[in-house]
Amino acid sequence: MRFMKRLAVLGFACVTSMANAADSITVYSYRQAFLIDPILADFTKETGIKVNLVFAKQGIAERIAREGRLSRADLVLTSDFSRLMELADRDLVASVDSDTLQQNIPANLRSPNGDWFALTKRVRNIYSSKERLGPLDIDYEDLADPKFKGKICTRSGKHPYNISLVASMIAHHGEAETKTWLEGVKANLARKPQGNDRAQVKAVKEGLCDIAIGNSYYLGKMLQDPKQVPWAEAVNINFPNQKNRGAHINVSGMALAKYAPERENAIKLMEYLSGQQAQQTYAELNMEYPVKLDVKPSKLVASWGDYKADELPIHKLAEYHGAAVKLLDQVKFDL
Amino acid sequence: MILGFPKSWSTLSYLTAICFALPLGAICIQALVPDEAVFGHLMQTVLPTYIFNTLALMLFVSLGALLIAVPAAWCVARCDFPGRNWFQWALLLPLAMPAYVVAYVYTDLLDYAGPIQTWLRQVNGWLSPTDYYFPDVRTLGGASVMLALVLFPYIYLLARTAFMEQSPSLLHASRVMGASPGRSFWRLNLPMARPALAVGAALVAMETAADFATVSYFAVPTLTTAVYDTWLGYGSLAAAAKLSAIILLVVFCLIGAERFARRKQELFQKQTPITSHERYGLSGYKAWLATGYCVVLLLLAFGLPVWILLGYAWDYFDVSWNQAFWEYSLNSLTIALVVSLMTVVFALLLMFVRRCSPREVDILPSRLASTGYALPGTVLAIGVLVPLSYLDFALNDLYAYFNQVEPGLIFSGTLFVLIFAFTIRFAAIAIGSIENSYKQISPSLDMASVTMGMKPSAILSRIHLPLLRSGIFAAILLVFIECMKELPAALLLRPVGFENLATYVYQFVSDEQLEQGALGAIVIVLVGLVPLIYLNRSLEQGN
Prior knowledge:
- The complex is a heterodimer.
- Chain A is α/β, with parallel strands linked by helices.
- Helix content of chain A is 44%, strand content 16%.
- Chain B is an all-alpha fold.
- Chain B has a domain at 24-96 and 139-310: MetI-like fold, CATH 1.10.3720.
- Chain B has 24 helices and two strands.
- Chain B has helices spanning 7-30, 38-45, 47-78, 84-90, 99-110, 115-124, 140-165, 168-176, 181-210, 213-217, 223-232, 237-268, 284-315, 317-320, 323-356, 364-369, 377-401, 415-439, 443-451, 456-467, 469-485, 488-493, 501-510, 514-542; strands spanning 79-80, 280-281.
- The chains are: A alpha/beta, B mainly alpha.
- At the A-B interface, α1, β2, α3 and α8 of A face α1, α17 and α18 of B.
């Protein structure tokens, strides 16, 4: 027991010392540290506010819920939209009313009541085999076309990226039509959904399929890894639905924690992240598109060409999230 | 036994045992909390699949491990063939491999884009997956094979000992009566080893039920992954606790069966190990077969994965050799060291009381404290967090009541919770090891010490401790390796932002980028090798 006591004292000392640190905020992040560290360093230099960043791949919402009023989290950074929704749905966020944020972030990329804000955009692209198909002018709707039978590869339908694509289909076409579409896509799959987005591009390179569904930034990331360069070079990146509503986009974002102990400073960081300098770096580090309109993406990302994005407000996707999961179960997309 | 043994020692051991049994109680209580229909939804949709997968996996892995381990154990114990002395301990090596690392390596080798299928396509001129059949690795069957490959040493170790300890005179009798070596094996050796095999199979099944990373990587949903998803995905602790209760039910049935088997084992054990001239000397194709079998087994379960890991680590050395790698290694080593010391301290306390106390019931605390090993990491995590969070909030309320600054989550939000959980999970190992050592110390020593006026604390520190040295050392080593490998509890309990090697490596596995984390995996394996070699040496001395 003495050991336990000593340990408890030690833990106590740790926590109290953390709590007493002057002018520092705690950020819980679903995004990996290296994607944000350079920006946070600049922020600290500019404002003198230290940022304590903690990364977890899963379970941040659950942890904040359990910590309740004792949580030390001030700000949450997420890597995709569904995590933002989860935080908002479980009442773990506080709404923010800031002119800076409203100016910097377009209305369709933030919650109407200030619960959450997008920071970067990425397109759900359709990759095609350079060798067998070449660049395509293609719509998501075409994925169900029987001419692609046995040619399509994708990750699990239940992955947040695919769920939100399905949700956007429901938003535009309704449930019944989307179900037929999903059945068509499933019939065209070359294999049971598995692996991540990169694995699909790799499968195209190997000849397993001709078309892969994947986020835009993966192409950039593959070009950075010597082993994966051949995969990336085997495909063309296509922006879907350019002749009609535009390509489906997903976002990474941020939300203020409900019990944030350092509310004021956290909002300062939020505003900083939506600003010119931070937007530039944040988008470049992960090969994504900035949300602030006058900030340009990186050279590599820009080289993939301009595209038209689906104007559907992001929060609309949340409405159809549940329906999308159910449809995916109904057509047994992953089985 | 020491008459007049102070009650304060017993009280302390009861307190410890109650702390250790806390998670079990917490899960039972939490499972009774209503859960907003999440569990009902699960039951209607996916729960039957989860239960089926879990049971099927446990069955397949145990059977697979038996099939792999028994021939190897019999050859090593009863036959002489080239390399036997070496295989004797080398076949334990796979125990040091985390199953998910093996699973990753084989997926890389065997999937469509992997070298084997690519080569087959080139040789045969096949163009697409519809041209030929190749078994899919990422299935229930694939997961069974992977887990059997790393878990078989448990059975091998127990079976080898059992075969070695079988009295040679029985075999002589069987041979004199005209039974061939094969017939003797089926009619004599195997039935006599049955209790040991049952114990081994139960252990393997328990480890299988606790596995999280392999099945999650293979997308084979089991109860253990369901606990994780229900908790973090649906955000329902109550439903997760209900699932945990189902797992516990399965595990306790297994333990019951294992106890039953061990009860019978006493009858068969004769301490007359066979000597080298009583082994079958294999020659010709039989010797080749035995050696070949062991070589292939060792290559598949250990050599090949390690070789591939080394290749990854070499290619990605620049990426993985960084500050973070050192930090996470240090985290792993520190936690493992603290936990192994703590388990030993508690095990010493519990076993000392059990040995010295004149009260019969004082055997209870050590039994109770050993139940932690039965809880898979995910289940344990829930069992630990519930009472500690409660404690934290109570404490903060108290501080607030007296207008003091609230200290925050000092139990559930710090490393305390991780160390607490690991200590509970692995205490059974230390208790078992020290229990065995105590058996070697004659009770007359205690009596002599009492006659000479020594107090209990002096007996413990001046008589028992020096004599228990090797048992304590073994306990520290065994707990150490388990702490290095334990993943699910670490994933769920670590303070936000804290990583150790296991969580670090798993992060790369789940991202399908193990190449970058291979260095960490190699460290886990290397650290695991040390105790194995020591363990085997002490076993050989025992023989």
